[in-house]
Every structure is written in C-alpha cells, then in structure tokens.
C-alpha cells in the first residue's frame, strides 16, 4: 500500500462529508487507506466516520477521548500501514486524482518527502501557494528549497506534505502546546529527509471560515518563547546556506517579538524584552537584529494603552545595537 491519509475529526459535521468524499475521489482504493480519528466529537461527526467505514473496506474509523488535534494525529500515525502518510484537516478537502499523480512520480523516482501547494479556499481558488516542480537531493538544492518554502508559506503547514513512513512514523506531535506544533513536526521530518520531491500542483484546499482571523487565540508569551527556540533549533538541523541561516535568525526574532507583543501588562513585556536581549547577546546577531527592527518598523506593532512607553523601551533597545 502506498499511502495512509490521516484525518483528525472533531465537531466538523457540516464539512466532513466533503472532506472524506475528496479522498474517495482519488480513485485509488487499492493503494490508499483512510484513517478517521474521531477525537471525542459531540456532534454527528463520529457517526459519519462509522458510516463511511462500513461502506469502504479501506476506510477505518477510530474513536478516542478528546485530547486535541496533535494527540489524534499521533494516534493515526500509530496505525499507519502505508509506505507514506499524509494529513488532511477535516474541514478541508483535496482535488480529485492528485494522489495518483504522486504515485506516478514516486514510481519514477522515489523521495523521502513530497511537497505540494495549497489554495486558500475560497479566497484564491486559482494559483495558490506553490513552487516549481523539481527534486532536491543534495545539500545546496535542499537549502535553497527550504528557503523558498519559508518565503512562500510552504514550510510550516503539515497538510501539504507526504512523509515516508519508515523514516518518520517515529516522530510525534507535541500535545502539551497548541501553538506551531505542526511546524515542529514538519521540521522534524524535513531534518531527516535526504530527498524532497516538489509537485507544482496546488491540490489542497485550505478552508477559511467567516469571521476567522489569525491570532484570534491568546498564547502565553512563555510558550511563544519556547516554541521560537524549538523552531530555530530544528531549523538549524536543515541543510544550510548563508541566506537560509539569516532568514531563520530573523524568523526567530519575529517570534520572540511576538512574545513581547502578546504579553499582558508592562511588567511582563519588560520581562520578555530582557529575554530577547539575552538571546541576541547569546547568538551574537546584533547587526542582523538592528536591520530587522529597521526593516519591519517593529515599533508600529505595539499599539496598546501603554504604547508610548513601549515605543520608548524599544527605541532604547535599538540604540543598544548602534
């Protein structure tokens, strides 16, 4: 069997039929299995999973106590039988016939990881986020690919990648955090990949819902700081180039500054500014950070009742690096 598709399911009754039907439309039941992991849904989602499992021998439904999407994905990984595995979020869907194209390319030249594009549905249903088709299997080409992936918002999503099971089924999603946990998993897998096959298509439809916006949930600054450190540590294990290294550093600073901005209260903000200063001293990247602050005009991001004071604090931070 070529591919195991893992779908964590939780209270998605209005969207689940479309998601599952899109996998059925791949028309390759002899080379695919679908693992539906119901994470303690309170609506009819669990019953829908059972309905499909009773009709199709290659669809399997599991029911577990609610433990979050990472835990549900981990449960799916434990039951993978395919040579490769991938993930679909239960309110998203994939274009018909795409997995057949992946299998065709795999039979020509296998890769450890396959990368493909995605569309923000229904915001842009045409080109989406994608890269040109290629296969990278050396340090230089992989470093350039990872840089391009970061610049085109393709590095961190988990749903636009297909992973080799032998190499990657040992990896697990962190279940004690709910911030960038999919990014950390993706970096774990990419860090071990000796080859990545890029497929130019953007078959994955990432569904945006009315009223949805980024940053809607509060994340404790200490979690942001810890995740920022882990993202940088894992990124450093990828094949490197000078440009990728610098991009990773600036990405790290951006996450650290997000911790400052998400802090509640001036004392907590001061605490995380001090942490950021220590991090910069540790890594020795003062020049890059000063350029970063200037280029992003980061002072404009701190609009709060204590904004004037924060601007003064950050101005002093910039002066420290002159």
From TrEMBL:
GO molecular function, one term: hexosyltransferase activity
Keyword set includes Lipid biosynthesis: no
Glycosyltransferase 2-like domain mapped to chain residues: 4-134
Pfam families, alphabetized: Glycos_transf_2
Protein name in UniProt: Glycosyltransferase family 2 protein
Listed transmembrane segments: 298-318
Key word Transmembrane helix present: yes
Key words of the record: Glycosyltransferase, Membrane, Transferase, Transmembrane, Transmembrane helix
């Amino acid at each position: 069997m070529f591919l195991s598709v893992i779908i964590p399911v939780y209270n998605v009754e209005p969207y689940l039929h479309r998601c599952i039907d899109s996998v059925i439309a791949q028309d390759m039941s002899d080379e695919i299995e679908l693992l539906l992991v119901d994470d303690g849904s309170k609506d009819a989602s669990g019953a829908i999973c059972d309905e499909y499992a009773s009709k199709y021998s290659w669809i399997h439904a599991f029911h577990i106590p609610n433990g979050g999407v990472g835990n549900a994905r981990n449960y799916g990984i434990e039951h993978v039988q395919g040579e490769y595995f991938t993930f679909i979020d239960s309110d998203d869907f994939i274009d018909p016939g795409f997995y057949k194209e992946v299998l065709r390319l795999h039979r020509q030249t296998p890769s450890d990881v396959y990368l493909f594009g995605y569309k923000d549905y229904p915001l842009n249903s045409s080109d989406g986020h994608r890269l040109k088709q290629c296969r990278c299997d050396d340090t230089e080409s992989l470093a350039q690919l990872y840089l391009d992936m970061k610049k085109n918002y393709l590095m961190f999503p988990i749903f636009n990648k297909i992973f080799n099971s032998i190499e990657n089924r040992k990896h697990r999603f962190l279940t004690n955090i709910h911030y960038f946990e999919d990014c950390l998993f993706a970096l774990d897998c990419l860090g071990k990949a000796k080859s990545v096959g890029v497929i130019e298509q953007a078959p994955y439809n990432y569904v945006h819902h009315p009223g949805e916006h980024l940053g809607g949930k509060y994340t404790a600054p200490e979690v942001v700081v810890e995740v920022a450190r882990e993202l940088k540590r894992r990124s450093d294990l990828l094949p490197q180039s000078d440009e990728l290294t610098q991009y990773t550093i600036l990405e790290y600073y951006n996450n650290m500054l997000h911790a400052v901005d998400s802090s509640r209260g001036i004392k907590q903000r001061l605490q995380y500014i001090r942490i950021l200063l220590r991090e910069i001293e540790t890594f020795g990247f003062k020049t890059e950070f000063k350029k970063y602050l200037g280029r992003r005009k980061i002072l404009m991001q701190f609009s709060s009742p204590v904004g004037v004071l924060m601007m003064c604090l950050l101005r002093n931070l910039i002066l420290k690096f002159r």
